[in-house]
Write a structure and sequence with these properties.
Layout lengths: L1 E5 L3 H17 L4 E6 L1 H4 L4 E5 L8 H6 L1 H18 L3 E5 L2 H14 L4 E4 L12 H7 L2 E4 L4 H8 L5 E2 L3 H12 L4 H8 L6 E5 L4 H15 L7 E6 L5 H7 L6 E4 L2 H7 E6 L3 H8 L4 E5 L4 H10 L8 H6 L5 E4 L5 H9 L6 H17 L4 H19 L1
Length: about 375
Protein backbone atom coordinates (compact mmCIF):
# COMPACT_ATOMS: atom_id res chain seq x y z
CA UNK A 1 0.00 0.00 0.00
CA UNK A 2 0.96 3.63 -0.47
CA UNK A 3 1.29 5.75 2.68
CA UNK A 4 1.56 9.55 2.69
CA UNK A 5 2.77 10.91 6.05
CA UNK A 6 3.04 14.50 7.32
CA UNK A 7 4.97 15.68 10.37
CA UNK A 8 6.02 19.17 11.41
CA UNK A 9 8.80 18.82 13.98
CA UNK A 10 11.56 16.60 15.36
CA UNK A 11 9.34 14.57 17.70
CA UNK A 12 6.94 13.82 14.86
CA UNK A 13 9.85 12.66 12.70
CA UNK A 14 10.88 10.24 15.46
CA UNK A 15 7.39 8.84 16.06
CA UNK A 16 6.58 8.58 12.35
CA UNK A 17 9.85 6.79 11.58
CA UNK A 18 8.96 4.07 14.09
CA UNK A 19 5.46 3.81 12.67
CA UNK A 20 6.94 3.41 9.18
CA UNK A 21 9.22 0.64 10.41
CA UNK A 22 6.25 -1.24 11.86
CA UNK A 23 4.18 -0.73 8.72
CA UNK A 24 7.00 -2.21 6.63
CA UNK A 25 7.12 -5.25 8.89
CA UNK A 26 3.43 -5.89 8.20
CA UNK A 27 3.21 -4.72 4.60
CA UNK A 28 5.97 -5.95 2.30
CA UNK A 29 4.80 -3.58 -0.45
CA UNK A 30 4.70 -0.47 1.75
CA UNK A 31 5.59 2.64 -0.25
CA UNK A 32 6.11 5.94 1.59
CA UNK A 33 5.98 9.57 0.57
CA UNK A 34 6.17 12.24 3.24
CA UNK A 35 6.81 15.66 4.65
CA UNK A 36 9.20 14.65 7.40
CA UNK A 37 12.78 14.45 8.54
CA UNK A 38 16.01 12.50 8.51
CA UNK A 39 14.73 9.63 10.67
CA UNK A 40 11.83 9.03 8.29
CA UNK A 41 14.21 9.27 5.34
CA UNK A 42 16.27 6.47 6.86
CA UNK A 43 13.20 4.22 6.61
CA UNK A 44 13.01 4.71 2.85
CA UNK A 45 10.47 6.24 0.52
CA UNK A 46 10.45 9.79 -0.82
CA UNK A 47 11.05 12.90 1.29
CA UNK A 48 9.00 15.66 -0.35
CA UNK A 49 9.78 18.45 2.13
CA UNK A 50 11.82 18.58 5.35
CA UNK A 51 9.96 19.57 8.51
CA UNK A 52 12.51 22.34 9.06
CA UNK A 53 10.68 24.24 6.31
CA UNK A 54 7.42 23.93 8.25
CA UNK A 55 8.26 24.45 11.93
CA UNK A 56 7.36 28.03 12.86
CA UNK A 57 5.81 28.95 16.20
CA UNK A 58 4.36 32.23 17.44
CA UNK A 59 2.42 34.98 15.71
CA UNK A 60 5.37 36.99 14.35
CA UNK A 61 7.44 34.04 12.99
CA UNK A 62 4.34 32.60 11.32
CA UNK A 63 3.42 35.98 9.84
CA UNK A 64 6.93 36.54 8.49
CA UNK A 65 7.01 33.11 6.87
CA UNK A 66 3.35 33.00 5.82
CA UNK A 67 4.02 32.95 2.05
CA UNK A 68 6.37 29.98 2.47
CA UNK A 69 3.94 28.16 4.78
CA UNK A 70 1.05 28.66 2.36
CA UNK A 71 3.16 27.56 -0.60
CA UNK A 72 4.24 24.41 1.23
CA UNK A 73 0.62 23.66 2.09
CA UNK A 74 -0.52 24.11 -1.51
CA UNK A 75 2.32 21.94 -2.79
CA UNK A 76 1.52 19.24 -0.23
CA UNK A 77 -2.17 19.13 -1.13
CA UNK A 78 -1.42 18.94 -4.83
CA UNK A 79 1.19 16.23 -4.28
CA UNK A 80 -1.27 14.05 -2.36
CA UNK A 81 -3.86 14.19 -5.13
CA UNK A 82 -1.24 13.45 -7.80
CA UNK A 83 0.24 10.48 -5.91
CA UNK A 84 -3.13 9.03 -4.82
CA UNK A 85 -2.01 7.16 -1.68
CA UNK A 86 -4.09 4.49 0.00
CA UNK A 87 -4.08 6.59 3.16
CA UNK A 88 -2.83 9.94 4.46
CA UNK A 89 -1.34 9.64 7.95
CA UNK A 90 -1.08 12.90 9.88
CA UNK A 91 1.22 13.10 12.90
CA UNK A 92 0.44 15.83 15.47
CA UNK A 93 1.09 19.39 14.07
CA UNK A 94 -2.63 20.30 13.93
CA UNK A 95 -2.41 23.82 12.48
CA UNK A 96 -1.05 22.44 9.23
CA UNK A 97 -2.42 18.93 9.30
CA UNK A 98 -6.08 19.73 9.94
CA UNK A 99 -6.05 21.98 6.87
CA UNK A 100 -4.63 19.10 4.86
CA UNK A 101 -7.29 16.76 6.28
CA UNK A 102 -10.07 19.13 5.24
CA UNK A 103 -8.65 19.37 1.72
CA UNK A 104 -8.20 15.62 1.29
CA UNK A 105 -11.70 14.95 2.63
CA UNK A 106 -13.21 17.56 0.31
CA UNK A 107 -11.33 16.61 -2.85
CA UNK A 108 -10.88 12.85 -2.73
CA UNK A 109 -11.96 9.57 -1.18
CA UNK A 110 -8.53 8.97 0.35
CA UNK A 111 -8.93 8.03 4.03
CA UNK A 112 -7.25 10.29 6.59
CA UNK A 113 -5.72 8.74 9.72
CA UNK A 114 -4.40 10.88 12.56
CA UNK A 115 -1.58 9.37 14.63
CA UNK A 116 -0.90 11.30 17.87
CA UNK A 117 -4.19 13.12 18.09
CA UNK A 118 -4.33 16.93 18.29
CA UNK A 119 -4.34 18.21 21.87
CA UNK A 120 -7.68 19.97 21.57
CA UNK A 121 -8.44 19.02 25.18
CA UNK A 122 -6.01 21.79 26.15
CA UNK A 123 -7.38 24.52 23.89
CA UNK A 124 -9.17 25.04 20.58
CA UNK A 125 -11.71 22.38 21.53
CA UNK A 126 -13.88 23.63 18.67
CA UNK A 127 -11.57 21.71 16.34
CA UNK A 128 -13.49 18.56 17.25
CA UNK A 129 -15.94 19.55 14.49
CA UNK A 130 -13.14 19.45 11.92
CA UNK A 131 -11.83 16.15 13.27
CA UNK A 132 -15.25 14.50 13.14
CA UNK A 133 -15.76 15.75 9.59
CA UNK A 134 -12.31 15.22 8.08
CA UNK A 135 -10.51 12.46 10.02
CA UNK A 136 -11.55 8.85 9.43
CA UNK A 137 -9.56 7.24 12.25
CA UNK A 138 -7.88 8.82 15.29
CA UNK A 139 -5.01 7.09 17.11
CA UNK A 140 -4.37 8.34 20.63
CA UNK A 141 -1.17 7.97 22.66
CA UNK A 142 -2.46 9.46 25.94
CA UNK A 143 -4.85 7.38 28.08
CA UNK A 144 -6.96 10.31 29.31
CA UNK A 145 -7.82 11.25 25.71
CA UNK A 146 -10.18 8.30 25.40
CA UNK A 147 -12.63 9.80 27.89
CA UNK A 148 -12.33 13.20 26.22
CA UNK A 149 -13.00 12.08 22.66
CA UNK A 150 -15.35 9.18 23.29
CA UNK A 151 -17.03 10.23 26.51
CA UNK A 152 -17.37 13.95 25.97
CA UNK A 153 -17.55 14.18 22.17
CA UNK A 154 -18.81 10.71 21.17
CA UNK A 155 -15.99 10.28 18.66
CA UNK A 156 -14.31 6.84 18.73
CA UNK A 157 -10.52 6.69 19.07
CA UNK A 158 -7.89 3.96 19.19
CA UNK A 159 -5.63 4.15 22.26
CA UNK A 160 -2.46 2.41 21.11
CA UNK A 161 -0.14 3.17 24.03
CA UNK A 162 2.57 5.80 24.16
CA UNK A 163 5.49 5.58 21.71
CA UNK A 164 7.84 7.32 24.13
CA UNK A 165 7.67 4.16 26.25
CA UNK A 166 9.01 2.19 23.28
CA UNK A 167 11.73 4.71 22.51
CA UNK A 168 13.03 4.84 26.08
CA UNK A 169 12.81 1.05 26.48
CA UNK A 170 14.66 0.48 23.19
CA UNK A 171 17.43 2.85 24.21
CA UNK A 172 17.86 1.22 27.60
CA UNK A 173 17.91 -2.27 26.09
CA UNK A 174 20.55 -1.38 23.49
CA UNK A 175 22.80 0.88 25.54
CA UNK A 176 25.75 -0.26 27.62
CA UNK A 177 26.96 3.30 28.10
CA UNK A 178 28.74 4.23 31.32
CA UNK A 179 29.05 7.61 32.95
CA UNK A 180 32.80 7.47 32.40
CA UNK A 181 32.29 6.97 28.64
CA UNK A 182 29.73 9.76 28.51
CA UNK A 183 32.16 12.12 30.26
CA UNK A 184 35.07 11.17 28.02
CA UNK A 185 33.15 11.37 24.75
CA UNK A 186 31.84 14.85 25.50
CA UNK A 187 34.80 16.38 27.25
CA UNK A 188 32.99 16.81 30.55
CA UNK A 189 34.51 17.36 33.96
CA UNK A 190 33.04 14.29 35.63
CA UNK A 191 30.80 16.22 38.00
CA UNK A 192 27.17 15.03 38.38
CA UNK A 193 25.03 16.31 35.52
CA UNK A 194 22.18 18.80 35.59
CA UNK A 195 20.36 18.40 32.28
CA UNK A 196 18.78 21.27 30.38
CA UNK A 197 16.08 20.54 27.79
CA UNK A 198 14.94 23.89 26.43
CA UNK A 199 12.62 22.95 23.58
CA UNK A 200 12.97 22.43 19.85
CA UNK A 201 11.87 25.83 18.54
CA UNK A 202 14.03 28.92 18.46
CA UNK A 203 11.54 31.15 20.26
CA UNK A 204 11.14 28.61 23.07
CA UNK A 205 14.89 28.43 23.46
CA UNK A 206 15.32 32.21 23.49
CA UNK A 207 12.58 32.59 26.07
CA UNK A 208 13.63 29.79 28.41
CA UNK A 209 17.26 28.77 28.14
CA UNK A 210 19.02 31.87 29.56
CA UNK A 211 16.95 31.86 32.74
CA UNK A 212 17.27 28.09 33.10
CA UNK A 213 21.06 28.41 32.91
CA UNK A 214 21.17 31.28 35.39
CA UNK A 215 19.10 29.27 37.86
CA UNK A 216 21.15 26.10 37.48
CA UNK A 217 24.45 27.99 37.63
CA UNK A 218 23.98 28.38 41.38
CA UNK A 219 24.93 24.69 41.58
CA UNK A 220 27.85 24.83 39.12
CA UNK A 221 30.34 24.16 41.89
CA UNK A 222 28.97 20.66 42.44
CA UNK A 223 27.23 19.90 39.15
CA UNK A 224 27.91 20.30 35.42
CA UNK A 225 25.29 21.91 33.20
CA UNK A 226 24.66 19.91 30.02
CA UNK A 227 22.25 21.08 27.34
CA UNK A 228 20.61 18.40 25.18
CA UNK A 229 20.46 20.37 21.93
CA UNK A 230 17.54 20.08 19.51
CA UNK A 231 18.71 18.47 16.25
CA UNK A 232 17.16 21.17 14.06
CA UNK A 233 18.84 24.10 15.82
CA UNK A 234 22.30 25.20 14.55
CA UNK A 235 25.24 25.50 16.93
CA UNK A 236 25.58 29.19 16.09
CA UNK A 237 22.11 29.86 17.49
CA UNK A 238 22.94 28.25 20.81
CA UNK A 239 26.25 30.13 20.89
CA UNK A 240 24.39 33.44 20.58
CA UNK A 241 21.82 32.57 23.26
CA UNK A 242 24.44 31.19 25.66
CA UNK A 243 27.06 33.88 25.14
CA UNK A 244 29.22 34.06 28.25
CA UNK A 245 27.44 31.16 29.99
CA UNK A 246 29.20 27.95 31.04
CA UNK A 247 27.12 25.17 29.51
CA UNK A 248 28.18 22.06 27.63
CA UNK A 249 26.06 21.65 24.49
CA UNK A 250 25.68 18.13 23.09
CA UNK A 251 23.78 17.06 19.97
CA UNK A 252 22.03 13.80 19.24
CA UNK A 253 22.36 12.54 22.80
CA UNK A 254 19.15 13.52 24.59
CA UNK A 255 18.53 10.04 25.98
CA UNK A 256 22.19 9.64 26.84
CA UNK A 257 22.11 12.92 28.78
CA UNK A 258 18.96 11.89 30.63
CA UNK A 259 20.34 8.46 31.46
CA UNK A 260 23.22 10.11 33.33
CA UNK A 261 21.50 13.20 34.75
CA UNK A 262 20.78 13.77 38.46
CA UNK A 263 18.04 16.32 37.80
CA UNK A 264 16.71 18.41 34.92
CA UNK A 265 15.11 21.68 33.92
CA UNK A 266 12.69 20.96 31.08
CA UNK A 267 10.29 22.93 28.91
CA UNK A 268 6.84 21.43 28.39
CA UNK A 269 6.17 18.80 25.74
CA UNK A 270 7.31 15.26 25.13
CA UNK A 271 10.60 16.02 26.90
CA UNK A 272 8.81 16.10 30.26
CA UNK A 273 7.55 12.57 29.66
CA UNK A 274 10.93 11.34 28.46
CA UNK A 275 12.62 12.81 31.53
CA UNK A 276 10.11 11.08 33.80
CA UNK A 277 10.56 7.72 32.08
CA UNK A 278 14.29 7.97 32.71
CA UNK A 279 13.35 8.62 36.35
CA UNK A 280 15.12 11.99 36.41
CA UNK A 281 13.49 14.50 38.80
CA UNK A 282 12.60 17.68 36.94
CA UNK A 283 11.24 21.20 37.10
CA UNK A 284 9.05 22.22 34.17
CA UNK A 285 9.97 25.71 32.98
CA UNK A 286 8.01 27.63 30.37
CA UNK A 287 8.52 31.36 30.27
CA UNK A 288 6.63 33.56 27.83
CA UNK A 289 6.49 37.30 27.30
CA UNK A 290 3.59 39.18 28.94
CA UNK A 291 3.68 36.62 31.74
CA UNK A 292 0.78 37.98 33.78
CA UNK A 293 -1.48 38.06 30.74
CA UNK A 294 -0.46 34.53 29.77
CA UNK A 295 -1.10 33.29 33.30
CA UNK A 296 -4.56 34.87 33.19
CA UNK A 297 -5.31 33.26 29.82
CA UNK A 298 -4.02 29.94 31.12
CA UNK A 299 -6.49 30.03 33.98
CA UNK A 300 -9.44 31.18 31.89
CA UNK A 301 -8.80 29.83 28.36
CA UNK A 302 -6.93 26.54 28.72
CA UNK A 303 -9.20 23.59 29.43
CA UNK A 304 -6.70 21.66 31.55
CA UNK A 305 -5.05 22.28 34.89
CA UNK A 306 -1.54 21.24 33.84
CA UNK A 307 0.78 21.72 30.86
CA UNK A 308 3.23 18.85 31.39
CA UNK A 309 2.42 15.38 30.12
CA UNK A 310 3.63 13.92 33.40
CA UNK A 311 0.96 15.69 35.42
CA UNK A 312 -1.72 15.25 32.76
CA UNK A 313 -1.23 11.48 32.65
CA UNK A 314 -0.99 11.16 36.44
CA UNK A 315 -4.03 13.40 36.90
CA UNK A 316 -2.29 15.34 39.65
CA UNK A 317 0.81 17.44 40.27
CA UNK A 318 3.84 15.16 40.21
CA UNK A 319 6.30 17.74 38.86
CA UNK A 320 6.29 21.47 39.56
CA UNK A 321 5.29 23.64 36.62
CA UNK A 322 6.72 27.17 36.52
CA UNK A 323 4.81 28.83 33.70
CA UNK A 324 4.74 32.41 32.40
CA UNK A 325 5.18 34.83 35.32
CA UNK A 326 5.69 31.86 37.65
CA UNK A 327 9.05 31.14 36.02
CA UNK A 328 11.37 33.39 37.99
CA UNK A 329 14.99 32.87 38.94
CA UNK A 330 14.06 32.44 42.60
CA UNK A 331 11.28 29.93 41.88
CA UNK A 332 13.40 27.78 39.55
CA UNK A 333 16.26 27.63 42.03
CA UNK A 334 13.96 26.75 44.91
CA UNK A 335 12.23 23.95 43.02
CA UNK A 336 15.49 22.58 41.62
CA UNK A 337 17.03 22.52 45.08
CA UNK A 338 14.06 20.48 46.36
CA UNK A 339 14.71 17.59 43.94
CA UNK A 340 18.49 17.27 44.13
CA UNK A 341 19.98 14.11 45.69
CA UNK A 342 19.28 13.90 49.40
CA UNK A 343 16.16 16.07 49.30
CA UNK A 344 12.73 14.77 50.29
CA UNK A 345 11.03 16.18 47.21
CA UNK A 346 13.14 13.91 45.04
CA UNK A 347 11.73 10.68 46.50
CA UNK A 348 8.18 12.02 46.35
CA UNK A 349 8.58 12.85 42.65
CA UNK A 350 10.09 9.46 41.83
CA UNK A 351 7.09 7.75 43.45
CA UNK A 352 4.82 9.88 41.27
CA UNK A 353 6.71 8.77 38.18
CA UNK A 354 5.86 5.14 38.95
CA UNK A 355 2.17 6.00 39.17
CA UNK A 356 2.32 7.85 35.86
CA UNK A 357 4.14 4.99 34.11
CA UNK A 358 1.53 2.50 35.28
CA UNK A 359 -1.22 4.59 33.69
CA UNK A 360 0.59 4.71 30.36
CA UNK A 361 0.65 0.92 30.13
CA UNK A 362 3.15 -1.25 28.27
CA UNK A 363 5.37 -0.42 25.27
CA UNK A 364 4.19 -1.31 21.76
CA UNK A 365 2.46 1.84 20.45
CA UNK A 366 3.95 1.97 16.92
CA UNK A 367 3.24 -1.72 16.35
CA UNK A 368 -0.27 -1.43 17.76
CA UNK A 369 -1.00 1.56 15.54
CA UNK A 370 0.48 -0.03 12.41
CA UNK A 371 -1.46 -3.24 12.97
CA UNK A 372 -4.75 -1.43 13.43
CA UNK A 373 -4.13 0.83 10.43
CA UNK A 374 -3.46 -2.09 8.08
CA UNK A 375 -6.47 -3.98 9.43
CA UNK A 376 -8.73 -0.96 8.87
CA UNK A 377 -7.35 -0.32 5.38
CA UNK A 378 -7.73 -3.99 4.42
CA UNK A 379 -11.32 -3.97 5.61
CA UNK A 380 -11.95 -0.78 3.65
CA UNK A 381 -10.50 -2.40 0.54
CA UNK A 382 -12.78 -5.43 0.86
CA UNK A 383 -15.84 -3.24 1.32
CA UNK A 384 -15.14 -0.95 -1.64
Amino acid sequence: MKYYLIVGEASGDLHASHLMRELKMRDAEADFRYLGGDLMKAQGGTLVRHYKDLAYMGFIPVLLHLPLILRNMRDCKRDILEWQPDVVILVDYPGFNLSVAAFVHGHSKIPVYYYISPKIWAWKEYRIKNIKRDVDELFSILPFEVAFFEGKHHYPVHYVGNPTLDEVAAYRASSDDTFECFVRDNGLTGKPVLALLAGSRKQEIKDNLPLMVKAASAYAGCYELVLAAAPNIPESFYADVLRGMRVKVVYGQTYRVLSHACAALVTSGTATLETALFRVPQVVCYYTACGKLVSFLRRHVLKVEYISLVNLVAGREVVRELVADGMTLENVRRELDAILPGQKGRDVMLEGYEEMAARLGEPGAPGNAAGQMIKLLSRRGRES
